[in-house]
Amino acid sequence: MKVTAPELQLFDELKLGLTSFCYRMLGSIDDADDAVQETFIRVWQSWSSFRQESSFKTWVYRIASNVCLDKLRQTKRRIRPVDFSGPAESIVEPRETLPDSSWIWPAPEFSNNPEDIFIRKDTLHICFITLLQLLPPRQRAVMILKDVFEWPSKQIAETLGMSSAAVNSALQRARDTLEREQLRSDEFNRSEEAPDQELLSRYVEAFEQFDINALVALFHEEGRMSMPPFPMWVRGKDDLFKFFTLTRWHCEGSRFVPVTANGGFPALAQYMWSREENGLVPWGIHLLEVKDNKVYHVQNFINRKLFARFGLPDRLDR
């Protein structure tokens, strides 16, 4: 059956909300985009079977939920380097990488979504996305739809093909799991604290000048840096100093472009000098987490494909 323009508009109005839902489910903006595209294809193929027994929105989210659940059956849980192993025991240049499918990745703003004023932006922070990945997929979907999107249990039941009692039971188990994890982990127990503009400016200045002493001085005593897709991560000022010294040749001459990520969290897009391309090219997206007014954790997401998704140029002039 041919889908008409009004029906396409109905789907388009849901697209950003669907992307936001799928990102929370899957932990990757690329996978979320793929899931939304697959949802559209399934909606188009199944249009004649839509009997209006539920709302169009519920029907589309049912399809999107099934797409996400199918994807999650085929993959391992996404994590961060700090969840994968302990900090590096010896400071060497990172070499080993794991596939992109191993890691949680940041996402650009969803602020154009008209539903966003009703959706808690703190549930887009990297720590919360990480917590969600600990839940079984169906519990994850229930929690997102209930505690983030604030849907009634009856609508969630219709979307996920569950009874209202099963929805409430899954929600309670999900909340219990997240509460235990938050109590167990100091990092999960506190909300991600964003850096203020002064700290961000000092970080940019120290990094672009590659003043290692000034850069390390910005870190908390327990400060850390992680760099997916490298599982290696570094903790403590002494090891950070060694690491920055070792990688000077690679990072010197970098430039930053300010962006926002994961619900308005301030971030920095790093461009590094490439002799082969004779210019500054995308390298990583830095998210700085703060503790006691010091940099506690720099998550440098090294993934060139992210830059286009964040609307960033593929090259900067030096």
Would you give an account of this structure?
This is Sigma-70 family RNA polymerase sigma factor. With 318 residues, the chain is of the alpha+beta class. The protein has helices at 5-26, 29-46, 56-73, 81-84, 126-132, 137-148, 153-160, 164-184, 186-189, 197-208, 212-217, 237-246, 248-251, 305-309; strands spanning 219-227, 230-235, 255-261, 265-274, 279-291, 294-302. A six-stranded mixed sheet has the order 2-1-6-5-4-3. Helix 6 (137-148) crosses helix 8. The mean pLDDT is 90.
Helix and strand arrangement:
Blueprint: H1 5-26, H2 29-46, H3 56-73, H4 81-84, H5 126-132, H6 137-148, H7 153-160, H8 164-184, H9 186-189, H10 197-208, H11 212-217, E1 219-227, E2 230-235, H12 237-246, H13 248-251, E3 255-261, E4 265-274, E5 279-291, E6 294-302, H14 305-309
Parallel strand pairs: 1-6
Antiparallel strand pairs: 1-2, 3-4, 4-5, 5-6
Domain RNA polymerase sigma factor 70 region 4 type: 127-178
Subunit structure: Interacts transiently with the RNA polymerase catalytic core formed by RpoA, RpoB, RpoC and RpoZ (2 alpha, 1 beta, 1 beta' and 1 omega subunit) to form the RNA polymerase holoenzyme that can initiate transcription.
Organism: Paenibacillus agricola
